[in-house]
Amino acid sequence: MFVTFEGPEGSGKSTALRAVSEWLKDAGHEVLETREPGAGEVGKKIRDILLHGEELLGTTETFLFLADRSHHIKSIVRPALSEGKVVLCDRHADSTVVYQGHARGMDVGLLRELNRIATDGLKPDLTLLIDLPPEIGLGRITNKDRLDAEPLEFHEKVRHGFLTEAQLEPGRWVVVDGSHDPASTAAACFESIIERLKGN
């Protein structure tokens, strides 16, 4: 089962993912925790360029994310899924559609097609959107990277983009309120995953 965690900056998705991973392992599941960008040696190098490098053109930024995704899916995610593991991924293709499309203004249809190529058609079984107002999320961040430092208007577009995408595929997305304490947010994510696993 392939589960992705999405959300605005500071939403708590990474914290929720780690908690969910431990609970799933305690329940007897084999779990792989991963992220985009940044998984594996290639991913780490791309992540450093994207989040801590110099200012990038929008198209350059997009293709770096796609390059990371292509390598990640083929070398890490698909092998784990073939072994029967539950794969928990911190950000995936929907982030590109939202950040580069809804927020930066690139063609959303084109980004969907580029994602399809990069993932070789693989889509998550479940996407958990941890939602909260951007001013709350940004207030939680102490060390801001290049994307965190974007103006509030950009982050408002990100939140709206995620909610729009969730409405387009309600069968895949579950929206979780990220304004609660971390334990409650993680518990809601865990319950959604267990429900899907029982249905498989």
Quick structural overview:
The chain is α/β, with parallel strands linked by helices and 200 residues long.
Structure description:
The protein is built from eight helices and five strands. The chain has helices at residues 13-26, 40-52, 58-82, 93-103, 108-119, 134-139, 152-168, 182-199, and strands at 2-6, 31-35, 86-90, 126-131, 173-177. It has a five-stranded parallel beta sheet with strand order 2-3-1-4-5, sandwiched between helices. The protein is α/β, with parallel strands linked by helices and 200 residues long. Helix 1 (13-26) packs across helix 8 and helix 2 packs antiparallel against helix 3. The longest helix is centred in the middle third of the chain and has 25 residues, at 58-82. The chain starts with a strand and ends with a helix. 58% of the residues lie in helices and 13% in strands. It has a single domain (2-199), classed as Rossmann fold (3-Layer(aba) Sandwich).
